Amino acid sequence: MVEAAPKAAVAEFLGPDRGPTTTARRRVCQPTDSPDGTIRQAAPLDPVLKPVNGADRQKREVMRPKKTILCVDDNEQVLSVRTFLLETRGYRVIALTDPHQALEVIANSLPGTLDLLLSDLIMPQMDGNELVRRAKDMHPQLPALIVSGTVTAYDRASRADVFLPKGACSPAELLERVRILVARKRGPKKYSMPSAPMAPSRSIAAVSA
């Protein structure tokens, strides 16, 4: 036997236009059997919310650690534009105008924490080639990318993994080179524990005894 629903609940469910209201639809209940055989209403069910489009992808991007790029250029305007370009692509940028400060950052960083060194070639205090040489002396596995808006000869940046000369360092080309270098970047080699010596066999143990 089904108990009659109260008139107030029916009125709320039907609404003024005798159609199910939004609030009532959220309060739809499922019947459950009671021990005495009657059917009673259970607690209201929470509405099932569909995941927002792209929510899972955004969550994965938030959980994924950002790649860190050390960007060095003595021209503050160029450095600001380059930093904005990289940050809009999801990279974490350490922007510096002084190559000596960049060497201090590298020296104080653990191997593998920096994913790329991006430097200008022509700088007054220290050129990009020398900066990359010193950086790789401290962290040999650190990828290095040198760009130049004035030099066209590739041999001027022989210490870098990639050199983008004048006319080849467009934003699209720069981002593509950065993506490849960061993907190829390898961290420090893991220390492997030496294998334990094997126990002698029974025959050998018997002979030695």
Task: List SSEs in N-to-C order.
Answer: HHEEHEHEHEHEEHH
The CATH topology of the largest domain is Rossmann fold
Averaged pLDDT: 74
Count of alpha/pi helices = 8
Number of individual domains: 2
Strand count, sense and closure of the main sheet? Answer: 5 strands, parallel
Contiguous uncertain segments of 5+ residues: 17-30, 45-49, 186-209
Strand order of the largest sheet: 4-3-5-6-7
Question: What is the β-strand count?
Answer: 7
Q: Any guess at the CATH architecture of the largest domain?
A: 3-Layer(aba) Sandwich
Instruction: Give the full name of the CATH homologous superfamily of the largest domain.
Output: Response regulator
Can you tell me the overall shape? globular
Going by helix content, strand content and strand pairing, the class is alpha/beta
Gyration radius from CA atoms, angstroms? 33 Å
Proportion of helical residues: 25-40%
Question: In percent, how much strand structure appears in the residues?
Answer: 5-15%
Regarding CATH, which class of the largest domain? Answer: Alpha Beta
**What is the distance, rounded to the nearest whole angstrom, between the alpha carbons of the first and last residues?**
88 Å
